[in-house]
Amino acid sequence: TKKRSFPPTFMFGVASSAYQIEGAWDEDGKGESIWDRFVHEDPERIADGYNGDVASDSYHLWRRDVEMLRELGVHFYRFSISWSRVMPTGLSNSINEAGFAYYDNLIDELLKYKIMPMVTLYHFDLPQYLQDLGGWINPLSSEWFEDYAAEVFKRYAHKVPFWITINQPKSICMDGYESNVLAPAVNSKTVGGYECTKNVLLAHAKAYRIYQTLYKTEHQGNVGISIELNWYDPVKNNTENAAAVARARAFQIDLYMHPIFSETGNFPNLVREIVARKSKEQGFTSSRLPNLTAEEIKLIRGSADFVGMNHYTSFLVQNSKKQYESPSLDDDIGVELSYRSEWKPSKSSWLKNTPYGIYRACIHVNINYNYPPMIVTEHGWSTGTGLGDKSRADNLRHYLNSLLLAMEDGTKLKGYAAWSLMDNVEWTAGTSERFGLYQVDFNSPTKNRTARLSALVYKNIIKTREVNLEW
Ligand code: GCO
């Protein structure tokens, strides 16, 4: 069989996010975020009660974190900045130097060991002060974010070669504003999620444009956005399901991709048509999906140097005949999701081992968006505790092999980040689902980190640039 290997320029990394690892939720002047509020308001929201107050304690253990990155031999580390740590209210007139000092240290430590920082500006943790003003529903939100991004670029543009503006607009908006799965749990079924989507995309685009105007020429960094790109296939092929799959992909993927990466910009036609028609039936005077002005379309279109792909699993789709609450996103999409029984389950109910899906998601992007540069900014697998995580190692090897096939078929993939460097707070699942290459001992005050089998497997892949599917 033919030996495939990752090209010499291909970058391997690992990813994390501030709320999930840092802890120190109110230390050294940090402001409250929507996640702090969400978990303190009702501790039952977290499956095992372990929230981000202390998390993996990376606020204190960052030196050890960088040591682990060196052990793995990664080329880059994707982490996020906690907005309310550096700007307690979220507004640019409130700067917390102690908060910035944490990131100064982390970034300098990474650079000292030639590990490239990939900084995510926003990974779910909006300053609560801004939420009190409406959060991502407030039309000013894209300007708040623009000011925040400008401040962070000003400090780090000369040190950080890769930027992710926003992590997973779909989760932010549909889980945080349309439903109550994630903070701030606004749960508005009318316009919340769609209004948020518009504002988040504008926020992303404004940050991108600032970097282009002020820093691109001098520092040549790349700015992208991380989009959920899970995969959707029909349960079984028939006309109804073909239409259902088209809706699933349009609402779950292309609603976020199309405005940025297509030639025409704007939300996908299919989504616009469906939401406009339903809104009319529901008695709204205009579509629940906001119209983008020509100027907004232009601002957002082309506002990324690469696609950040977050991919975890695949779903099977069938047309749904259920009566959903109306208006709602579920009602707009009208599909039911399922899995094949052969798909190996992880610890998380939504995540199954389907390596072919990452290949298909890459091809979807290539065909619909003309082969853009891509970086997998997240992919991972959950287990319980224990160091012998063979299922994670298997999942990693097979997904990386699918990526090699996708590259052979033209995907311009530049890098890959495994989720996650270490166990962390898996949002409302707390620590009941573990995603780490390194295990974290949450019961101990020292939060010891220990390499799992998968860390050793990944280290070897990075070193050889080859994936061995046989053991
Ligand atoms: C994200 C993800 C991560 C999760 C991971 C596993 O939005 O980037 O939610 O933060 O921990 O996807 O569920």
TrEMBL record:
InterPro entries: GH, GH_1_N_CS, Glyco_hydro_1. Keywords: Glycoprotein, Glycosidase, Hydrolase, Signal. It comes from the Eukaryota. Pfam families: Glyco_hydro_1 (PF00232). One of its GO terms (biological process) is carbohydrate metabolic process. GO terms for molecular function: beta-glucosidase activity. Belongs to the glycosyl hydrolase 1 family. Homodimer. This is Myrosinase 1-like. It comes from Arctia plantaginis. The lineage of its organism: Eukaryota, Metazoa, Ecdysozoa, Arthropoda, Hexapoda.
